[in-house]
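ok so for the tutorial part 2 we go from a plain amino acid sequence to predicted C-alpha coordinates. step 1 is just haveing the sequence, like this:
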Amino acid sequence: MSETLIPLFSSLVMVSDIQLNETEEKIILDFTDKCNFIKTREEENSSSISDDYYVLDDPQLILIRNKIAMEVNKYIDHLQYEGQFDFSSSWITKTKPGEQSHYHTHSNTIFSGIFYIKTKDDCGSVALTDFTKTRWGIKKKEANVYNSSTWEITPLKNRIIIFPSNVPHKINTNRTKHTRFSLPFNVIPLGNIGAGEQRININAR
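step 2 — the prediction. this is what the C-alpha coordinates look like for a chain of 205 residues:
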Protein backbone atom coordinates (compact mmCIF):
# COMPACT_ATOMS: atom_id res chain seq x y z
CA MET A 1 0.00 0.00 0.00
CA SER A 2 1.38 3.39 -0.99
CA GLU A 3 1.66 6.27 1.45
CA THR A 4 -0.90 9.05 1.64
CA LEU A 5 0.50 12.49 2.44
CA ILE A 6 -1.98 14.91 3.99
CA PRO A 7 -0.88 18.59 4.18
CA LEU A 8 -3.16 19.06 7.19
CA PHE A 9 -4.01 22.61 8.33
CA SER A 10 -1.90 24.05 5.53
CA SER A 11 -1.88 27.73 4.53
CA LEU A 12 -2.89 28.02 0.88
CA VAL A 13 -0.81 30.49 -1.12
CA MET A 14 -1.74 31.18 -4.74
CA VAL A 15 0.65 32.75 -7.25
CA SER A 16 -0.70 33.85 -10.60
CA ASP A 17 -0.05 36.38 -13.36
CA ILE A 18 -2.56 38.95 -14.57
CA GLN A 19 -2.59 40.14 -18.15
CA LEU A 20 -2.86 43.93 -18.47
CA ASN A 21 -2.99 45.70 -21.81
CA GLU A 22 -0.99 48.89 -22.51
CA THR A 23 -3.88 51.15 -21.52
CA GLU A 24 -4.38 49.37 -18.18
CA GLU A 25 -0.66 49.44 -17.43
CA LYS A 26 -0.55 53.19 -18.10
CA ILE A 27 -3.58 53.73 -15.85
CA ILE A 28 -2.03 51.97 -12.85
CA LEU A 29 1.38 53.61 -13.36
CA ASP A 30 -0.14 57.10 -13.68
CA PHE A 31 -2.26 56.45 -10.59
CA THR A 32 0.80 55.33 -8.62
CA ASP A 33 2.76 58.43 -9.64
CA LYS A 34 0.06 60.67 -8.15
CA CYS A 35 -0.15 58.89 -4.76
CA ASN A 36 1.04 60.48 -1.54
CA PHE A 37 3.16 58.13 0.56
CA ILE A 38 3.85 57.80 4.29
CA LYS A 39 6.50 55.70 6.06
CA THR A 40 5.29 52.48 7.68
CA ARG A 41 7.85 52.77 10.49
CA GLU A 42 10.31 55.31 11.88
CA GLU A 43 13.32 53.42 10.52
CA GLU A 44 14.91 55.16 7.55
CA ASN A 45 15.04 51.95 5.48
CA SER A 46 11.34 51.10 5.90
CA SER A 47 9.03 51.03 2.90
CA SER A 48 6.20 53.54 2.42
CA ILE A 49 2.49 53.14 1.74
CA SER A 50 -0.09 55.43 0.19
CA ASP A 51 -2.26 57.53 2.49
CA ASP A 52 -5.26 56.18 0.55
CA TYR A 53 -6.25 52.78 1.99
CA TYR A 54 -9.01 52.11 -0.54
CA VAL A 55 -7.33 52.55 -3.93
CA LEU A 56 -9.32 49.74 -5.56
CA ASP A 57 -12.49 51.76 -4.87
CA ASP A 58 -11.21 54.49 -7.19
CA PRO A 59 -13.15 54.46 -10.50
CA GLN A 60 -9.86 54.89 -12.38
CA LEU A 61 -8.81 51.39 -11.32
CA ILE A 62 -12.07 49.58 -12.02
CA LEU A 63 -10.53 47.43 -14.79
CA ILE A 64 -7.58 46.42 -12.58
CA ARG A 65 -9.94 45.82 -9.64
CA ASN A 66 -12.05 43.44 -11.74
CA LYS A 67 -9.02 41.42 -12.84
CA ILE A 68 -7.70 41.16 -9.28
CA ALA A 69 -11.18 40.13 -8.11
CA MET A 70 -11.20 37.29 -10.66
CA GLU A 71 -7.99 35.91 -9.13
CA VAL A 72 -9.41 36.26 -5.61
CA ASN A 73 -12.47 34.28 -6.70
CA LYS A 74 -10.21 31.52 -8.08
CA TYR A 75 -8.41 31.38 -4.73
CA ILE A 76 -11.72 31.12 -2.87
CA ASP A 77 -12.88 28.38 -5.26
CA HIS A 78 -9.77 26.36 -4.42
CA LEU A 79 -10.78 26.57 -0.75
CA GLN A 80 -14.34 25.49 -1.62
CA TYR A 81 -15.85 28.40 0.32
CA GLU A 82 -19.35 29.66 -0.37
CA GLY A 83 -20.76 33.16 -0.04
CA GLN A 84 -19.71 36.65 -1.04
CA PHE A 85 -16.36 38.31 -0.46
CA ASP A 86 -15.12 41.82 -1.10
CA PHE A 87 -12.07 44.05 -0.71
CA SER A 88 -11.94 45.72 2.70
CA SER A 89 -8.82 47.79 2.03
CA SER A 90 -6.16 48.31 -0.62
CA TRP A 91 -3.18 50.62 -0.98
CA ILE A 92 0.04 51.22 -2.90
CA THR A 93 3.40 50.23 -1.39
CA LYS A 94 6.61 51.96 -2.47
CA THR A 95 9.95 50.29 -1.70
CA LYS A 96 12.97 52.37 -2.64
CA PRO A 97 16.49 50.96 -3.10
CA GLY A 98 17.76 49.67 0.26
CA GLU A 99 14.31 49.63 1.82
CA GLN A 100 12.31 46.71 3.24
CA SER A 101 9.36 46.06 5.53
CA HIS A 102 9.10 44.35 8.91
CA TYR A 103 7.28 41.07 9.55
CA HIS A 104 3.58 41.66 10.02
CA THR A 105 0.12 40.14 9.65
CA HIS A 106 -3.16 41.81 8.69
CA SER A 107 -5.98 42.10 11.24
CA ASN A 108 -9.76 42.15 10.67
CA THR A 109 -9.45 40.36 7.34
CA ILE A 110 -9.42 36.76 6.11
CA PHE A 111 -7.30 36.88 2.93
CA SER A 112 -4.58 39.25 1.79
CA GLY A 113 -2.82 39.70 -1.50
CA ILE A 114 -0.16 41.62 -3.39
CA PHE A 115 -0.30 42.74 -7.01
CA TYR A 116 3.06 43.84 -8.40
CA ILE A 117 3.00 46.99 -10.50
CA LYS A 118 6.68 47.75 -11.12
CA THR A 119 9.56 45.38 -10.35
CA LYS A 120 13.17 44.56 -11.19
CA ASP A 121 15.29 41.47 -10.46
CA ASP A 122 16.30 41.41 -6.77
CA CYS A 123 13.94 44.26 -5.88
CA GLY A 124 12.80 42.48 -2.71
CA SER A 125 11.07 39.11 -2.60
CA VAL A 126 8.15 38.55 -0.25
CA ALA A 127 8.97 36.20 2.62
CA LEU A 128 6.13 34.25 4.25
CA THR A 129 6.99 32.61 7.56
CA ASP A 130 5.47 30.22 10.10
CA PHE A 131 6.93 31.15 13.49
CA THR A 132 5.05 28.31 15.21
CA LYS A 133 7.13 25.53 13.65
CA THR A 134 9.71 23.81 15.86
CA ARG A 135 13.18 25.13 15.10
CA TRP A 136 15.47 22.16 14.57
CA GLY A 137 18.73 22.60 12.70
CA ILE A 138 18.23 19.50 10.60
CA LYS A 139 19.85 19.52 7.17
CA LYS A 140 17.45 19.20 4.25
CA LYS A 141 18.01 17.27 1.06
CA GLU A 142 15.81 19.84 -0.61
CA ALA A 143 13.57 22.60 0.72
CA ASN A 144 9.87 22.02 0.09
CA VAL A 145 6.49 23.09 1.48
CA TYR A 146 6.59 20.27 4.05
CA ASN A 147 9.91 21.10 5.71
CA SER A 148 10.19 24.88 5.32
CA SER A 149 9.25 27.50 7.90
CA THR A 150 9.97 30.37 5.48
CA TRP A 151 9.10 30.58 1.80
CA GLU A 152 10.14 33.39 -0.52
CA ILE A 153 8.31 34.39 -3.70
CA THR A 154 9.93 36.53 -6.38
CA PRO A 155 7.93 39.60 -7.42
CA LEU A 156 7.35 39.99 -11.14
CA LYS A 157 5.44 42.69 -12.94
CA ASN A 158 1.69 41.88 -13.02
CA ARG A 159 2.15 38.92 -10.67
CA ILE A 160 -0.39 38.43 -7.89
CA ILE A 161 0.04 36.52 -4.64
CA ILE A 162 -2.89 35.64 -2.34
CA PHE A 163 -2.57 34.09 1.13
CA PRO A 164 -4.32 33.89 4.54
CA SER A 165 -4.08 37.24 6.34
CA ASN A 166 -2.69 35.66 9.52
CA VAL A 167 0.48 34.44 7.80
CA PRO A 168 3.47 36.59 8.87
CA HIS A 169 5.17 38.16 5.87
CA LYS A 170 7.62 40.89 4.94
CA ILE A 171 9.30 42.60 1.99
CA ASN A 172 12.97 41.70 1.76
CA THR A 173 15.52 44.40 1.00
CA ASN A 174 15.32 46.04 -2.42
CA ARG A 175 18.87 45.53 -3.69
CA THR A 176 18.38 47.32 -7.00
CA LYS A 177 18.69 50.97 -8.01
CA HIS A 178 15.01 51.05 -8.89
CA THR A 179 11.88 51.69 -6.80
CA ARG A 180 9.48 48.78 -6.49
CA PHE A 181 5.71 49.40 -6.49
CA SER A 182 2.97 47.00 -5.48
CA LEU A 183 -0.73 47.04 -4.65
CA PRO A 184 -1.56 45.03 -1.51
CA PHE A 185 -5.16 44.35 -0.53
CA ASN A 186 -7.33 42.66 2.08
CA VAL A 187 -10.49 40.60 1.57
CA ILE A 188 -13.37 39.90 3.96
CA PRO A 189 -16.50 37.71 3.77
CA LEU A 190 -19.88 39.44 3.47
CA GLY A 191 -23.36 38.62 4.72
CA ASN A 192 -24.27 36.22 7.50
CA ILE A 193 -21.26 34.39 8.93
CA GLY A 194 -21.62 31.53 11.40
CA ALA A 195 -24.72 30.37 13.25
CA GLY A 196 -26.49 30.69 16.56
CA GLU A 197 -24.87 32.89 19.20
CA GLN A 198 -21.71 33.14 17.03
CA ARG A 199 -23.50 34.55 14.01
CA ILE A 200 -22.43 37.94 12.67
CA ASN A 201 -23.47 39.99 9.66
CA ILE A 202 -20.93 41.94 7.63
CA ASN A 203 -22.15 44.45 5.07
CA ALA A 204 -20.19 45.97 2.21
CA ARG A 205 -18.96 49.51 2.69
